[in-house]
Amino acid sequence: MLFNSNVFLQFFAAFILLFFLVRRSLTARNWLIVAGSYLFYGWWDYRFLSLLFLSSLLDFWVGLRLEGTVSESRRRIWLMASLTGNLGMLGFFKYYGFFAESLAALMEGWGMRISPMALNIVLPVGISFYTFQTLSYTLDVYRRQLKPTRNLVSFLAYVSFFPQLVAGPIERASHLLPQMEQTRVITRAMLEEGLWLVLWGMFKKVVVADNLAPLVDLAYRPGESTGPVVLLGTVAFGLQIYGDFSGYSDIARGLALMFGFDIMVNFNLPYLATNIRDFWHRWHISLSTWLRDYLYRPLGGNRRGPGRTGINLLATMLLGGLWHGASWHFVVWGAWHGLGLLICRVWIQRRESRLRDPFPHGIAGNPQRPGFHAPGLAFENTEKEGRFPNRLKTIFSWVLTMIFVFYGWLLFRAGSMSEVASLTLAFGDWRCPDWLWSYAMRLAVVALPLVLMQIWQARTADLLAPMRWSVWTRSILEGVLLWAILVFWEQESTAFIYFQF
Fold it and tell me: What's the number of domains the chain is made of?
């Protein structure tokens, strides 16, 4: 079921009516969340509901076993049971074909021909997101940073909460689970903020991202590869994936607020970053902080010298790239950003006497608070590092960062490594097709509302800047957004890009 579909509007109307009828009964509310979320998820393919339930049941049970076990060796066995079960399901459904084909190609290069078993495996929607969400619960319980819940219904509601089930944010149990276990008070401010986030997120998806998609497809189709075409197509894709994914996150946050739940900010103006570390403070924050806490730091972080730090960074980002998809161009995209983080670390180290953790730490203040205020562009670990003596250096640093990030989007969008090579070589040919000017004009028109809003949010240092307007002014803006959404709403709704991950 897609947020931008007619059937979801019917589902949401029925769900919110029932939710308000039972909101004061904690047990009934959580049962409704579980039932509604399983209906929402099962709309794609009911068979995969078993995976969602088994993953939830496994970690709920392991959490209780971890609490009741004193022996550290036995606690590690229970942790391995969770890791094996969750990562085993994820690996089988998402990576079996990739590793089988890669092994066959490698063996063929050595002169040995093998034929791995061919399986027609369908990737369950959102499996990467809810697997990481349940794993974070088990890992926090294992570290004794969280007491396990004994309420299975509230745990199932935490894992399956439909606004963020399919494409995040990847919520931590320490933040969302307690909200499932207490009665929520829904205020007018929550409803107003939730409505704004849903409208703005839907605008980014339906009006911006879906109108940029044909431009991206046109630029990346075979035979169109010249430098200007690939350049504009890559810019269009960078804006498309941002509008698409951050739009989903905004809708998820808005829907959650309407039910009285607070979920974390997942994007914070990433295209205003002035270095690659700053970018990962702002892009897909729930994933970057997950990788930091459950992969980078357990590997040793930056505590074992510069050589080991570099290896840890590259390994973390390689796995982060592979998390996005079972293809070598995703691995290369991860390696590209790992290399960028490593270069950024060395560059900063030469200019600073003190260096803190080199991996993204999320946004400043409280990353769980949707309406946070930050002073200027000061984010954790960037206040000292990201400021330059003059504006010219800041602009130069921003330009270099965007060149790096958007070439990364070329790696991400390309369908294979051969396509990556073809698109990269296209920059040697700077012929402009006749249609390129109209293409650039359409790109500018579609992207303009998004760009203007981002500038406004940056100048006010407030992601919820429109909420500070008067009720009448904000209502006019929301009316314009709603009108644009209805104009561009398609009967055959386009899926969100991150559903494939």
Answer: 2
